[in-house]
Design a protein that fits this description.
The structure is a homodimer.
Chain A: E1 6-12, E2 16-23, E3 28-35, H1 42-59, E4 70-74, E5 77-79, E6 84-87, H2 99-107, E7 111-115, H3 116-127, E8 136-141, E9 145-151, E10 154-155, H4 186-190, H5 192-205, H6 222-230, H7 234-258, E11 262-266, H8 274-287, E12 296-299, H9 306-318
Parallel strand pairs in A: 1-4, 4-7, 8-11, 11-12
Antiparallel strand pairs in A: 1-2, 2-3, 5-6, 8-9, 9-10
Helix pairs in contact in A: 1-2, 3-9, 5-7, 6-7, 7-8
């Protein structure tokens, strides 16, 4: 197999599908996004993914037959050995459909399916903010709080591929019911919806001026709270200090458990930047065990492509490609 | 190297030192316990360990020169690459003393030092309650709550050897200060002292009959609470239900993070048995994510020898012994 060869990556989300051509070292050649239309079912989605990838390959001067590996990442619980999504709340009806295998068969390429945050962790570790570490945790902050684990230089999946539910660790055993069967989870405190609720509650609890008051309730989101904070809004800034403190409290448990070199944090909510990271680091420095408190806590570097890139690198590695060898 | 050869193990605790001759497959040939006399310092302790081991070897018909490997386990933070204890609250003044290297040099044998709960986890995994698993968590319940991690078939130590502080994961971010810099840790809820305090508080809060009322306050310990519960004492039984529920709440986070096949729980407090395990399992089944909730939660099998056996097996493995090959 040549040192560098052509590959493809597919990111399967509840809203959008992203399809890309990449070199086997993870460099993106070209990418295209199409709506998922989850309700139309997986057969239809699969056909559109294959067509989009074929069109992309032709436009970029090579046939669809020379792809050395295809990586697919999807939200939900993944059986990565059989390349099946077992459970995915945002893609009901797509479960157990052999999407990845169908795509692989269409291009005669070996394929690898991976959970989206696992794939993001692997991508960040190989090419992003986790480069050079041996033990790295990854958190994806959004509507949910997902996790990925690189331990002893390998992606850790657990006994059933269900590991790394870092958002479903307890912060408060007396806390409110989470969307999972547990109570008081990290996700139940810092998921996007709870950040918005926190802001609305702060607005309701006082008469303090805030530009968030000009927005309809539904427009109060992590993004608009970030924008307000960036514009000097004190109430909005306080929301991020509180959320960062809660994130830090969740990280205390995680660094005490893993003693990792680095925690890489991405996802839409992480775009709040230092307003979120600074208080989180402060709590970890103050409350984690001495050596674990040294853990670096940094923003993700690959943006929205991390999952697609990571899944592709995992597919290259499984296919035995030299460019995918573990560093 | 022969398939099975003679080895030794040394367990270094704040109260007692345990010295044993073992076969390289982990079978204990003979063991002896002597007081640590921690205050007399590590030079003196080291000399007595070596003398005891020499005497044990002579009594059992072979010279001290034929030990193929020596494993040492110690409480505290261990630099296992340099065989040094870096920090050990119960062995102040012994830190950074090259105890393991001195013992190895006295017998001309390769040596391996390991943290006691890491060694216990490895021992239980190879020969005890964790046999046959690929991902196993180990908890040692006593004054403190220690942890050990077998992940992807290997002992996981983290970036600084400080990983697996499973007792220092947050149960309650509004909880009381722990002995560590964090608040509301699992250890702060189910460490031996807090179990005793819980029983005393229950006694003080009501007039309910309990045989624990016959004991002086200092005699209310996990052991006496277990004995009372075994004798039908309802208040004592309730203490274990509450402690087991809290343990289970701590395990929810851990199984969501690791999706392990099994959690092995030992240490003095675990001698409470099913009164502790049953409520813990119930909470995990009810509150963990679906696949992680399948994790088996079982008592440790090797008793007090687990650390010594595990350290010896690690030493055999490092020495390249066939009997120490990872299964």
């Amino acid at each position: 197999m040549p040192l560098r060869f052509r590959t493809a990556g597919v990111d399967v989300g509840g809203t959008n599908l992203k399809v890309a051509l990449l070199w086997s070292d993870g460099t993106v050649i070209a990418a295209r996004q199409i709506p998922t239309h989850a309700e139309a079912g997986p057969e239809q989605g699969c056909r559109r993914i294959i067509e989009t990838l074929q069109a992309l390959a032709q436009e970029h001067g090579h046939g669809a037959e020379d792809l050395g590996a295809i990586g697919v990442d999807s939200a939900g619980l993944v059986d990565h050995e059989h390349n099946l999504v077992l459970d995915s709340p945002n893609l009901r009806g797509w479960e157990r459909f052999p999407l990845a295998e169908r795509i692989g068969a269409a291009f005669g390429a070996p394929v690898q399916l991976e959970n989206d945050v696992n794939a993001m962790a692997y991508g960040e570790w190989r090419l992003g903010a986790g480069r050079g570490t041996r033990h790295m945790l990854c958190l994806a902050l959004g509507t949910g709080v997902g996790g990925g684990l690189i331990l002893d230089g390998r992606l850790y999946r657990g006994a059933h591929g269900a590991a790394a539910e870092l958002g479903h660790t307890t912060l408060d055993l007396h806390g409110p019911q989470c969307s999972c069967p547990n109570v008081g989870c990290l996700e139940r405190h810092i998921g996007a919806e709870y950040i918005a609720t926190r802001a609305r509650e702060k607005l309701a609890a006082s008469e303090r001026p805030s530009r968030l008051r000009d927005l309809p309730a539904a427009a109060i989101t992590p993004r608009s709270i970030s924008e307000a904070a960036a514009g000097g809004d004190e109430l909005a800034a306080e929301v991020w200090t509180e959320v960062g403190t809660l994130l830090g409290q969740g990280l205390v448990s995680l660094v005490n458990i893993f003693d990792p070199e680095r925690v890489v944090i991405g996802g839409g909510v992480a775009k709040a930047g230092e307003r979120l990271f600074e208080p989180a680091r402060r709590v970890v420095r103050a409350r984690a065990m001495s050596l674990a408190a040294r853990t670096e806590i940094v923003p993700a570097a690959l943006g929205d492509d991390a999952g697609l890139v990571g899944a592709t690198l995992l597919a290259v590695e499984r296919a035995g490609g030299a460019a995918g060898a573990t560093p």
